[in-house]
Amino acid sequence: MKHLNRNQRLAALFLVLAGAMLLPDIAAAGTGTGPFDTVWTMIVTWTQSGLGRVIAGTLVLVGIVAGIARQSLMAFATGIGAGIGLYNMPIIIDSIFTATLPVMG
Known about the structure:
The protein is mostly helical. Helix content is about 70%, strand content about 0%.
């Protein structure tokens, strides 16, 4: 495969950047509503209510028991990480999918 010289690389970079600047209206990250909104609301309610707290607490306890049984901090850290991740999952996913940039006028 033939390597590109410096000018060709700069031209390609310029074209990519120009395309990114000219097409910002295409980016619409999860701003609409759809048929799965009720399902998402139900999952968020489950993870943020008592059920989610019980499951997160159970994951932490299983991690503690597995850490003691294996004599390893990694099993303990995995249980705590899973519990924290489960409880904060709706916040993380909403932050990722509803991230928008301000429109410059």
